Structure formats: structure tokens, C-alpha cells
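quick one
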Amino acid sequence: MDFPFENSYANLPERLYTKLAPTPVKTPKLIAYNTALAADLNIKGAPEAAVFAGNIIPEMADPLAQVYAGHQFGHWNPQLGDGRAILLGEVAGHDVQLKGSGPTPYSRMGDGRAWLGPVLREYVVSEFMHAAGVPTTRALAAVTTGETVLRETPLPGAILTRVAASHIRVGTFQYFASRTDAPASQALVDHCIARHYPDAYGPQGLLDAVVQAQATLIAKWMSLGFIHGVMNTDNCAISGETIDYGPCAFMDAYHPETKFSSIDQFGRYAYNNQPDIAAWNLAQLATSLLQLMPDRDAAIESFTESVNSFILAFQKAYGAIFMSKIGISEVQEGDMALVTDLLDRMAANQADFTNTFRGLSEGNARDQFVDPTAFDGWADGWTTRIASEPDPQAVMRAANPAIIPRNHRIEEMIQAAVAGDYAPFEQLNTALATPYTLDQRHHDLTTPPTEQEIVHQTFCGT
Ligand code: AMP
Ligand code: MG
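structure w/ magnesium ion:
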């Protein structure tokens, strides 16, 4: 295979990473390859399992593990890093990283490996997010390793090749702030601006840009009923992409306090907390950038203003998307009340989030409500309101996916794959590639789980 690697991160000061190669695995087998993404990245040649397993290092790669720190569930952890991932280099400005590629100096107690379940989950969900128009890391390839990974039980090992605008996190800045290493911080600022925000100037410009990027990102998550599940500062990307599909999940029945992650005891990362948590993470970024500002008091003031602007930017983005979700393109006073009223009624009626919104353009939204008259009470005012809209049906169909990666389908897909059957994985990928147009062949993927099928908890599943 031919990867036109550049290695701009490897050329940053050495204390930002440790150079090392992946640990080879026993019998690599390719289980998925994203041909379209490979073409976008100018990667040439037939896919080789040995490359995506880390057994063969492409010629121009300069492999390394990045160091970072972070707040995990609000608790400061001064030393994290790629504990089971190796950055091979950048192609077309994008990081190519093997995840599950063996131990590194940052592995702590971990084995540096991943098992098949989370690898396939990340593959499917991240590619869906991309298809749905959400900034996200991508999946280029997946391989099985022929090795067993020990979790609660022995499980098949796998490696995901992840592509990202970069893997630089809020936690990367926190690491160098906590060590009062201003030169490293400055190098990171310059690097991030060059790669992600070429119009930004200095730490203030970078902060402002990240605030905006995170505001639109979280609004898009909310519009899909997406719950990230582990919004630690080390999982908050400077690029504004969704990163780290661990215990993430999509809501079936709408409730604002929904959470899935088994380790999120207090609902810190519940659906409706996500905007506040993003703002909290941005405040950590702002704090980390202070050491670069000669006039600290003035910087505290302007950084605070920037972080505080997050909620307004989020509300603006959220409002625009949810207006589209109910078919409104020319916003009038009072329109947002229609959205909140609908959501309140959905919550009281266990209405399926995806199917209710999609149902608005298909004429079956009321079927999603335990008490359909609760929908009728809302629909009267809404129907009158959208009568003056030019093409509400088209607006809604473009804003409300017909199909999402439902948790019970993901679990089913993983179980099948562990048993050697990749057909459900293929079907999910195919169906989710065009989430706004449903091919009737995939109709079974649109139905909410039955009582027995409901997934109540997700696990980090490392
Ligand atoms: P995450 O919860 O996936 O964001 O991971 C948090 C930290 O734990 C990161 O620094 C990971 O690199 C590390 N980590 C997670 N799983 C493993 C593993 N199996 N082996 C080594 N490090 C791991
Ligand atoms: Mg992580």
C-alpha cells in the first residue's frame, strides 16, 4: 500500500509524544475497508491486513503515541496518553491512527488492546455520524488480530484504523499547562491553528474557534438523540470532531435525562447535560491557554467572555437544527416554543426520538405516542404554522434521519460478528450510509427495540 504520509506532529517538540511502533499481532485478517475514505485520503493500493494490524509499517510513517492529561468525570488525571493507539502519520492533513495496537508508555494498567465489539461499534457509529453530517473521526479499516483479549471473558482482539482531523484534545493542552511548559503549549496552539483554524490568531483566536466548533457539534449530537457518554476533557477534540465512541448510544424513547454508560453513576454526561459539560471542558481549555498570555488579568476576562459565549452559540445552532426538524426554514417569534412543547409531550409519552421526528414528514408521528391525543394537541398549532412554509416536507426529510444505529442492532451485530457472521455489520454500514433516505430492504433497522431488546446500559468496553 502507498500512504503519502506527512509527519507534522512527529516534528513537534519531543516531549509531546513517545516514538514507538505498534506491537505485531499473530494473524491479522481484514474485516472492513473504507474504500471511499481511502480514495479521499489518496491512499493507493489494495488494502493489506498486515498494515492495519501494525505488523508492517508503511514506508513514510513515523509512528508515535501522544501524551495528554485530562479530567475524567470531573477528576483530574495528570498523566494519560495513547495507551493503546499509535499515530502512523498524516495523509491529506488527517491523522491515521491504529487503535488497539499494543502497549505504550501511557498504557497504565491496560493491555494496549481492543476487542472486536468496540471496534465494530466505532466503525459503524462514526461512519453513520459522518453520513448524517456530524463532524467526526472516521473509520478507515478494521482487522481482527487472531489473538485473544481478556476482559471479563476472553474475546477476539481487533484493531481499528481511525482517521481524524487531529487527535489533539483539551487534555493535550491541560498536560502542558499543568507542567507550566509554555513553549510546548505555544507549539500546540500554532499546530492547531495551522491544521484546523487557519483564520484564527493566537490563543484567543484558537479558543474562540473551538468554542464555535463545539457549539455546532453538540447541537448536532442533540438533534440526533446522541449521547456521547464519556465527555472527559481528554475526549474533547480541538478540531470539533466527535471522538471516542466508547459507551455512546442513541436514545430510542425520548427523555432528556437519558444516560446509558454504566460508569456514569450520577448522569454527569446525560443527554441534556451535554451542552453544560462542553462549556465546562472549554473552560479547562481556556485555563490551559492562560500561561501563554502576557496580560493574565485581561486574558481571564476575554477568555471568560469566550467560554460564556458557548451557550448562546449552542442555542443558536440548536435552534436552527430543531427548526428544520419541524419543517421551519423562516423562523418567527415563538417558533422555539413549538419545539419545547413537542419535546415535553414526547418525554411524557415515551415517544421514539428518531421515528417521531421522521414521522412528521411521513404522517405517522402520532403513532409514537402512548397517548396519541398528546400529539394531536401539538399538531394543530404546528400544522397552522407550517402552512406558510415553502417546502416543509423537504426541509424535514433532510433534517430527520429515517435510520440511526440503534443500540439493540449494534449489540446484535457485535454478537453475530463474534460468532463469525459479518452480514449484520455489512447491512448496518450499507443502510446507515444514506440515513435520510430509507431503502425498504432495511426497514427492520428502523423499529425501536421490544421490551426484551432494550439496551439499558453501555460499557466503555475497552
Ligand atoms: P477512554 O476511556 O477510551 O477515553 O480511555 C482513557 C484512557 O485509557 C486513554 O488514555 C486510553 O489510551 C487508555 N486506555 C483505554 N483502554 C486501554 C487499554 N486496553 N490499554 C491501555 N490503555 C487503555
Ligand atoms: Mg479517550
